[in-house]
Q: What sequence folds into this?
């Protein structure tokens, strides 16, 4: 999985069968310290992300499997989550405690 920040939208006039109605977003990949990493990329949006959102992305086959309707379409990058809160620890330790919260999916 990768981090990325949504920077814009992409418009496509002709789409492959099975990708009609799929929102395409321009994403800046980020490293683990949230610094830009590489060139901008176009990703299929399955989580209704918006410009400025920090997202979790998947590549390759996992990207096409993330699509809701048709599987095995030629999608190479998909947004599969919007990050609500991120804590980066300097010692690279993890806190596995799940905090109680509200979002539109619970």
A:
């Amino acid at each position: 999985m990768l981090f990325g920040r949504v920077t814009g939208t992409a418009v496509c006039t002709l789409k492959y069968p099975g990708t009609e109605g799929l929102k395409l977003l321009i994403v800046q990949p980020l490293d683990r310290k949230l610094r830009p990493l590489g060139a901008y990329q176009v990703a299929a949006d399955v989580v209704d992300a918006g410009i400025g959102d920090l997202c979790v992305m998947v590549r390759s086959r996992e990207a096409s499997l993330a699509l809701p309707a048709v599987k095995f379409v030629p999608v190479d990058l998909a947004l599969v989550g919007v990050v609500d809160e991120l804590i980066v620890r300097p010692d690279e330790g993890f806190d596995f405690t799940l905090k109680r919260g509200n979002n539109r999916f619970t």
